[in-house]
Amino acid sequence: MPEFNSRRWAVILVFWLISCQFIIAQDTSETPPEVGTTQKVGDVILFALPAATLGTTFIIGDKKGTWQFTKGLLLTEAVTFGLKFGINKRRPDMSNDNSFPSGHTSTVFHSAGFIHRHYGFKYSIPAYALAGFTAASRIDSKKHDILDVLAGAAIGLGSNLLFTTEYQQEHMELTFSSGDGQYLLGYTYKF
């Protein structure tokens, strides 16, 4: 039987949280049969973007990034659901009182913000596009208004400020430069 260390438990917990978001999004008791394609695509992105982000940290062996993403997502979900159930704002479609803030938006913007802060802006452009589409889909489906999605985006992006650092693939760097008969040898170690 495989050994379950804290990292594995964290990963299991993150996948469980992402799955719960997906299940909540698919709740047929609150979703009319005429749900549009835009909302369905937004619901898929809710699951796919965090899963792809976390999966990427595994594929490249970025253990530090895996843990940073996990902590940020846990904080994002805790703040989002704490506010949802504490504020009880009525959704624009009147389906329930869980409008503020948008959970879909906070989750996908956490993923996009993590990619931006950890791996760099150029890698985050597609993630931001998907996150923006998801936010728009929540407004289009009348699940949220603009304030709900802006608050969700702020929560998702903000959690990265606490936990996410820049990815450091190379820990050692040796540099050499010369000019005017002078030579400079440099050594840098990042940890």
TrEMBL record:
Domain Phosphatidic acid phosphatase type 2/haloperoxidase: 93-164
Transmembrane segments: 41-61
Key words of the record: Membrane, Transmembrane, Transmembrane helix
Keyword Protein biosynthesis: no
Range of residues in the leader sequence: none
Superkingdom, taxonomy of origin: Bacteria
Record carries keyword Glycoprotein: no
Pfam families (UniProt xref): PAP2
Stated name of the protein: PAP2 superfamily protein
